[in-house]
Structures are given as C-alpha cells and as structure tokens.
Write a structure and sequence with these properties.
By secondary structure, the chain is an alpha+beta fold. Among the domains are: about 110 residues, no CATH class; about 110 residues, Phage tail protein beta-alpha-beta fold (3-Layer(bab) Sandwich), CATH 3.55.50; about 90 residues, Phage tail protein beta-alpha-beta fold, CATH 3.55.50.30. The protein contains 20 helices and 15 strands. The protein has a four-stranded mixed sheet with strand order 11-14-13-15, covered by helices on one side. A three-stranded antiparallel sheet has the order 2-1-3. Strands 4-7-5 form a three-stranded antiparallel sheet. A hairpin with a 4-residue loop joins strand 13 and strand 14.
Amino acid sequence: MLGADRAGAGPRRRATAGPGAAAAGARPRGGVRMSEDTLRELVDLRPLGLLNSAQEARLREHLVGCPACRARAAAVDEAYADLRRLAEEGASTTPKPDARAALLARVRALDPPAATAPLPDAHAAADLTDSAPENPEKPGRIRREILAAAKQAASQPPAVAPDPEALGVRVVQRCCYCHDEVGPERALFCARCLAPHHDECFAEHGRCAVLGCEESFAVRPGAPRAPRPPSVPARSRRALLASLLLAGIGMGGVAALGGFAALLTLERPGKKIRRPTPPLEAAGPNSPLPRAQAAPVGSGSPTPVRSGVDPVELEGYGRRWEGELADLSEDVWRGDARAARARLQWLLADTAPHRRHGAGPLRALAERTAREALTAVRFWERRVSVESVDEPLSQVCARIAEVVADAGVQILVEPGADEPVSCSFANLRWGVAVNLLARLAKVQVVESRGRVLVFVRSPQVEQRFQEADVRTVLPLLAACGGYEIVLGTDVRGTVSCDLRNTPWEDALLLVARAAGGHRIFVDHPGRRLLVLSRAAAADPPPGYTPLRPATFWQAPDWPSFPPAANPNGPSAGGARPAPTEEPAPTEEPARDGARPLPRGK
C-alpha cells in the first residue's frame, strides 16, 4: 500500500487498536517487513511448501494476531485437502452439466468494477479527491494516496518510441510483382489498394499484382509544387506585351516581304525554276535502290496517325516490338509520348515498301524498273478514312476492301471474330488500318491463298504461373496454338504472371521477355517455334522469322500490282482523302555520280 511505506509526509498517526493492527502495521525485531497483500499471497502458497524459513516465521507471527488471515488459511487448507481426497479416490474431472450456468450466475451477481481514468497531473488528481469517499478509520488517506500517485506520474518523462536508425532497422517498400525494393523515383501505386510497384513491373503485368485486385490504373506520387513566382507589376506587364506585339509585327512584315519576293521570282518570264528534290529517306549505304530511283519512290516526313485510338493504347501496342526497334523502346520507357507516336507510325507502316523497315516488299521492288516500283508504292500507299461507332468488323473491312479490290485483295472476317468496333481513321494507309482494326477487335489477321486476308480469333490463354520454369511454361503455351517448340540450351529462368484472355502468341512473347529477354522465331510452313537467348538471337537459322504478336500483319512479297489512276484509291466511310502530288523526276544530275532518272520508263 502507498500509505504504509510513505516517508517524510508528516507525523505518523497512531493506528486504531484492532485485532490485526499490531501484526499488520508493526515490524518485528530482526524480521522482514511485508505488506498485507504479500502476506495473503504467502497464505495461499504455504500448503504447496514454496516458502522459505524467513517467510514461514513471518507468516506464523502474522497469523497469531490476524483472524481474517487465519480464516483464509483454514479455507485454503480445506480446499487442498478436498483436492487430495478427490485425487486419491480417482474422481472424474468431467464438470457437472450445470457447471457453466452456475458459474455465469455467480459472475453476473458480482458488482462491476469501477472504471479508473488516468491522472494526467496533480490538478486533475486534486479535483478527483473532492469526490473520493473517506475511510472512517483512516481519514485523509485516500486523498493523499491519489495525490502521491499523480505527482509520481507527472514527474516521469513521457514514453517515446525508439528511433529506427538508432536500433539499426531499415524500413523499405517492396514491389508486389518482383518483390524487389522500390525507390521513390520509380514507384507506382495501385489506384485501388495503393500497393507499390515498379513502373516497368506494372506495365509488364498490366494490372495490380495483389491477389484479388485487378485494377489497371496506377498513380505516381507527385513532386512538391514550386513556390509561386512574385507577381509582375501591371506596368511591367504592359511594357512586356507591347514589346512582344512590336516583335510580332516586325516578323510578319519580314515574312510578307519574303513571300512577295518569291512570288515575283515565280512569275518572272523566262526563268526556269528548279523543283527541290524530295527527301531521300530510303537512300543510304544499305539501300537496295539507287539514289536516282529512291528520289521518286521516297516521300516526305511520315504522315501522323489521326485516329480515335487512345495514345496509351498505341504506346502499349508499339512496346511489343521492344527488341526490334530500340528507338521506339527508349521513347516508350522514357515516357516521351510524342516521340513514341511518331516512331510508331513508322513501325506500323510495314505496308509502305520504301520505308527502311519494310524489308520484304523493298527487296521485291529492288529488281524492278522505276515504273513498276512506283506503281507498287502507289498500291501500298492507298489511303482510307473510316468512321464507325459500334459497327461490326465485317462491314468496316468491306469498305477497306473496296480500296484494293482491283488488285484481287479480299478482306474476310470469320463469324467468331466479327466484333463491334468504334474507330476514326483519317487518311491512313490501308495496311496500317488493317493492323489497327485487328488490334481494336483483339483478333488476328491471317493471309490465305489468292491475296485473301482473314480476321480470325486466335486461341486465348487463361493461365497463372508463380515462379514457374520457363522451359515448362513455353511448351504449354505453344501447344495452345498447335505449334512445336524447340528451346535453346541457354534458355533459362523463372516467370510469375497472370494471363487472362491473352492470345497465345502474345503470351509466348510476354513470358519469353519476362524470363530474361529471350527471342522467339517461327517457321510458319513447318509450324515450328524456336526460342533463343538474347545473345544467340543475333544469328537465327535460315527460314525462321521473328514471331509477331497476334494482331500484326506484315505486307507480303506479292509479285505484281495493278496500275491505278488515283494513287489514294476511294475512301471508306465517305470521307475525302487528302490529295497527294506526284513528285516530278528531277532534271538535274543526281548526287554521288548517279545517273538521272529517264522519263517514260
């Protein structure tokens, strides 16, 4: 008790005479001083023989003058005697059927304990002591004990949590997909459950990696906002606007004078005007066409894609060619959307044979005359404009087929792949439009005999792998498409992915890239796949070509192309295509000693 061991709190009050007062309050000579609670505990432990000689002597002295403790000791001895008797008789330990009800009745009959609020300081303790009950035998004792406890609590410093750095503890965030450490500069958080991911892990998985969360959107923590610059006075703003206005007027005047001078030059009689040579994009050290033939075949800068496709969808589509065009891969992973879309136009335009990556048609045109080459380029450069809202894919493809019907090209759609699509293409190459429609409808373009393009639904994969061996996963995915697969000896790695409604070609490419950047080559006539490591992929066997995603169709090496009066062809959807001018052959000698292009050939 606090009152029993209190020292320096004034003169001691003489204890009221009672039966156990002398034993409880007095300290015997040569003995050990104990509180009443300690003595009651010794009473309960005495039958077990756990007390030493000093505790036994002190308890015997206490029992002489305390009737309450003697009664407690007798009850404890009686209880232990009953337990020994039951043990000797071998009584069953199974409780009576009404034991639970009797125990609950006894518990409910007890008075609930009074809730004790914490004492923040001595002033709150003083307010509490005004309503505290008084002990008639020891007046003022409760107030003094409460005040002493409050002072002791106020003197102790508040508990402070230990510093993690002082304890040597390092707190890090880990990616839910690859379980590696996530730094603040590469962190992405799920928009639903805020699970941390690497930006490349979230892009590779396509959704949140937490089990049960399929959120496909992520948030990136924003940088702190810079402080607002001080406002410019109104007088300074007016002076700045006036100077900018004068500068604009001056530049406009210079441009007008330059245009007037050019107009005079064009209208000057007898003056021969040299037309500028178009950019020689196809020319170079590895170009299959001479520079003189590359001039009329080549065109200006690539036409931008003006379509209703989401730019993020376009970037994700272009990311599938990461191992084939390093420039596009760098733009996509760097987050430069404008540069990625510009390079993506070149990537998707495999139907334009004069592009540097349209290797198949360009090799076929290298051995032809300039007239045949120009006719072929015009065929692949035919443009379409499509406007559709939830229109069946077969109807949209029928309008595109009208553009190339004179070449014997047919575009068909299988019943299972006739999905409704919504798109808006303006002045787009017909081959690029075919690829984008296949991407929107999530189907595959297969070329049949006789220049027939068929939209078919590729077999879908529904699998989940967790730390699976890539040499086991790749044969399973190849079997979905009915292909045999051969794995290189150095193809190793494990993969964890969740594939849902994924074409089997896309699933193969995704697993191969995730397991270590392996490359997949295909032999379509033999229906065989070959998987090589990144190092061995530089020299694939003859007859094997890189496996393309399911929605990609590459222009074939068709032997002949029909001449057309209108290079653009009719437009689909009723929109008028943008007119294009035929580049005139140059009359000046070509550079690098090449002969000029003859007329009429």
